[in-house]
Amino acid sequence: MDNTPTTDTSAPGLLAGKVAFVSGAGRGIGAAAARLFAREGARVLLAARTESQLEAVTAEIRADGGTADHVVCDLADAASVRAAVDRALGLYGRIDLAFNNGAAITPPGPLDQVQESDFDRLYAVNLKGLWLAMTAEIDAIRATAGTGAIVNNSSVGSLRGNPELPAYGAMKRAVNSLTESAAITCGPEGIRVNAIAPGNTLTEMIRTWEADSPGLQERLTSRTPLRRAADPDEIAEAAAWLLSDRSSYVTGTILRVDGGAGT
Ligand SMILES: NC(=O)c1ccc[n+]([C@@H]2O[C@H](COP(=O)([O-])OP(=O)(O)OC[C@H]3O[C@@H](n4cnc5c(N)ncnc54)[C@H](OP(=O)(O)O)[C@@H]3O)[C@@H](O)[C@H]2O)c1
Hints:
Blueprint: E1 19-23, H1 28-39, E2 43-48, H2 51-63, E3 67-72, H3 78-92, E4 97-100, H4 116-143, E5 148-153, H5 166-186, E6 191-198, H6 204-212, H7 216-222, H8 232-243, E7 254-257
Parallel strand pairs: 1-2, 1-4, 2-3, 4-5, 5-6, 6-7
């Protein structure tokens, strides 16, 4: 079976002619990704819970000449996730690409102090929600574009013990496992599935963690060979490459984008 991707060479841009679904696109890494994917020629559907943030990013993309729409979606709600992916089909008639980026964080603390409700929340949003999204996206790609690519947003904190965020780290490590399993299942059809593992990136999530853990930035940057945090755009670039046909022989990989922190 020939599942070599077909590239639209008539339009410029890394993602020209593609339709991309981005979760957690209202702010942070997801918003940077939605803007970048649109600049690279994709039509983008932005999803998250906070409509005002989605509206603002969508308006920016359109003002810049891109094509984007938004849909309110709660990753903890299976029907909402399925409806959001279906919305892309309704708007654009297809899905080629998905960036499963939306996730929650809960207060830091050692394993024995994690609240059961926080563990359940991280499971529902960061793991089960991502699995629900992947399932809907794979169905949609199969039914429309035929071949495509999915990138899941994991974390460098998934790669070894994570004593400050143990439940978050466990969910992210499970995301890596789902990524690898999906790559094996979907590879024969020409659907590639990869993950990125960002390090310390300047977004609301890291600021929330820092508020509970003063001195966090200094701690993280001192352990990072590049000695700085990432800008969200730098993480989005890695996702764009993994979604593009330029990475056409890459699947099942967990790509660290962490300034060397996981080395
Ligand atoms: N920042 C870092 O240093 C870092 C490092 C490693 C990995 N990451 C990962 O990068 C991804 C993006 O995080 P970020 O740093 O950009 O954080 P952020 O600024 O807090 O953005 C998180 C996004 O996810 C959405 N989200 C949260 N809960 C949701 C839910 N139940 N349903 C739908 N959307 C939901 C948020 O929108 P709503 O709240 O409006 O729903 C928001 O758009 C996450 O997967 C995170 O784990 C971040």
